[in-house]
Structure to design on (616 residues):
């Protein structure tokens, strides 16, 4: 297990350092009235540099922005959600480990650092090997010296050694894993009565005036119009310009070459490859197949493999490569080729189908490429005009003027948080509409498809409870639904009481259905499954409402996990792995806190605030 964790830390190390490089993290040094502030604090004798803290913040904020489609989280938002505190805690923990490694005299040798440097793709040349000039250039572009980068790399590697030593060999107790597995994989059998509005003794009557008033007053949120922002906008998209643009022939040819793999495909074959340890073994298998003593499938099974293990899919001769590719493509019909040396060793190939070469000439591909070419040209034309539109607005032009004097089109929208049609389908517009302030001057902004827009907030209507007369039909419908659900629940509760008093469920009247050996989530809708597995003992019953339907369920049997389930062992291993990781994380956190306490922590709040200020 320690070896496994060591590999995991090593991979993590490489990717962390790669992220450091490709994100373009320049120096962050913080200045104050007395000069440059180098650290936000220290753990023992180890300083926590402002660069380290700022880079950690920037890395996480960029990661969050990527995860949310480019929407940047401000430092204030990050502070309010606790993200900043979590990042600072991690930086402090790393500094504590660095201090402990220095105290006990553990480090990583130059050879290990060199190996890690050479693995990073950003430092490789066109031939895929380490390029020292690329290494120097990339670091200089990101404000790092070789010494700084290699020191951080050495610290990360040494830290991973300590992490591995702390958490290596941890395994959860078998009883713990068995208990969780039994709980998760437990199965249950159930009897059900399904009740709908058709099962009521009489239809729900029309509501009275008092009924409507009570429903209206009990659920005012359902009848409250959302905040509405009246917005005027001018916009221009590539689609608006498409009908006035002729495709650029040069661009069409360029696009054809860029997508040449889609239009010109070499002959391919559906191939399976069975690899052997040496040519003698491969030849022996070939002879058996040729003599009819065994089939190719038999040879695959004899090696403990399945067809999926040897399937190469549809491949070209170049993809197979060498003599093996030549042998496979020498076949004029499906069949076997070999034994022949492949890139993995001696192999026998089976060709299951021959896919003919396909070539779509430029003239035929032109119609497919034209819309993309027109779109690209429209995007460029819009981009070229964007500064002119900005200048017009800056000179005092209104959105109406912009629509009259340019290609932009004018529109109005009563915008709410639920608007998603027309221009409101664009996230960029929604963000601007939400942030708009009445009286602000319009400015031209970009849309994600290459279009542009400018907007003006003309007024705002706060959330308003609509009059009962305006929503009377909706209130009546809601009352009928609520009354139907209430009567169905009452009927189900009456049936439940009869079952609990000893009556046979099948003799109650409504149809009874049964399901056997259900796993968690195996009974739909989901509230039924949740209720079934919440019952404590066989014979227990429950009434489960869901929308406009109600179920009466009875737990008939509690069954152990299915030992023959192919996924049983994988589930057990997953539980054990997660438990092991949880224990390791808890232990490591406790260890790090103990190290911090022993070494002593001091923080400079002014330096921390100065770092935060750079993100505002």
């Amino acid at each position: 297990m320690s070896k496994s964790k060591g590999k995991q830390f090593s991979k993590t190390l490489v990717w962390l350092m790669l992220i450091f490089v490709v994100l373009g993290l320049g120096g962050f040094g913080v200045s104050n009235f007395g000069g440059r502030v180098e650290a936000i604090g220290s753990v023992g004798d180890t300083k926590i540099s402002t660069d380290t803290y700022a880079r950690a913040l920037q890395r996480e904020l960029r990661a969050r922005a990527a995860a949310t489609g480019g929407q940047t989280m401000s430092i204030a938002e990050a502070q309010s959600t606790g993200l900043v505190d979590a990042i600072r805690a991690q930086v402090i923990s790393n500094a504590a480990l660095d201090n402990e490694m220095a105290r006990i005299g553990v480090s990583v040798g130059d050879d290990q650092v060199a190996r890690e440097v050479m693995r990073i793709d950003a430092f490789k040349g066109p031939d895929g090997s380490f390029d020292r000039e690329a290494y120097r250039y990339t670091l200089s572009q990101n404000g790092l010296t070789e010494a700084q980068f290699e020191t951080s790399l050495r610290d990360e590697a040494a830290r991973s050694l300590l992490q591995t030593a702390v958490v290596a060999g941890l395994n959860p107790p078998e009883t713990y894993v068995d208990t969780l597995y039994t709980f998760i994989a437990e199965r249950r059998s159930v009897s059900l009565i399904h009740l709908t509005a058709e099962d009521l003794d009489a239809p729900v009557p029309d509501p009275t005036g008092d009924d409507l008033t009570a429903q209206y007053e009990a659920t005012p949120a359902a009848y409250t119009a959302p905040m509405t922002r009246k917005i005027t906008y001018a916009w221009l998209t590539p689609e608006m310009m498409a009908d006035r643009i002729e495709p650029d022939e040069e661009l069409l040819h360029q696009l054809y070459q860029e997508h040449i793999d889609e239009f010109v495909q070499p002959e391919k074959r559906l191939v399976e490859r069975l690899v052997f340890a040496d040519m003698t073994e491969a030849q022996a298998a070939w002879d058996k197949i040729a003599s009819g003593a065994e089939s190719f499938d038999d040879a695959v099974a004899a090696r403990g493999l399945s067809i999926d293990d040897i399937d190469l899919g549809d491949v070209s001769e170049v993809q197979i490569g060498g003599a093996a590719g030549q042998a496979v493509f020498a076949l004029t019909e499906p069949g076997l080729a070999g034994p022949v040396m492949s890139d993995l060793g001696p192999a026998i190939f089976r060709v299951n189908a021959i896919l003919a070469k396909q070539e779509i000439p430029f003239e035929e591909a032109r119609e497919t490429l034209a819309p993309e070419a027109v779109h690209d040209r429209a995007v460029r034309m819009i981009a070229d005009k964007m500064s002119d539109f900005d200048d017009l607005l800056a000179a005092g032009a209104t959105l109406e003027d912009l629509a009259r004097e340019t290609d932009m089109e004018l529109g109005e929208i009563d915008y709410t948080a639920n608007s998603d049609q027309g221009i409101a389908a664009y996230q960029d517009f929604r963000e601007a509409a939400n942030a708009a302030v009445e009286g602000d001057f319009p400015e031209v902004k970009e849309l994600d498809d290459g279009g542009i827009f400018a907007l003006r907030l003309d007024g705002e209507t706060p959330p308003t409870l609509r009059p009962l007369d305006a929503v009377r039909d909706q209130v009546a419908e809601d009352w009928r639904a609520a009354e139907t659900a209430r009567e169905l629940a009452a009927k189900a509760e009456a049936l439940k009481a009869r079952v609990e008093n000893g009556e046979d469920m099948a003799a109650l009247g409504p149809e009874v259905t049964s399901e056997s050996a259900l796993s968690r989530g195996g009974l739909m809708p989901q509230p039924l499954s949740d209720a079934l597995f919440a019952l404590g003992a066989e014979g227990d019953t429950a009434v489960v409402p869901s929308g406009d339907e109600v179920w009466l369920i009875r737990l008939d049997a509690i069954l152990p996990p299915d030992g023959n389930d192919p996924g049983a062992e994988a589930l057990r291993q997953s539980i054990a792995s997660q438990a092991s990781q949880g224990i390791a994380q808890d232990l490591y956190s406790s260890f790090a806190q103990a190290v911090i306490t022993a070494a002593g922590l001091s923080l400079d709040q002014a330096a921390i605030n100065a770092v935060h200020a750079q993100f505002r």
Notes: Residues 1-35 have pLDDT under 50 and may be disordered. The first strand starts at residue 30 and ends at 32. The first helix runs from residue 2 to 22.
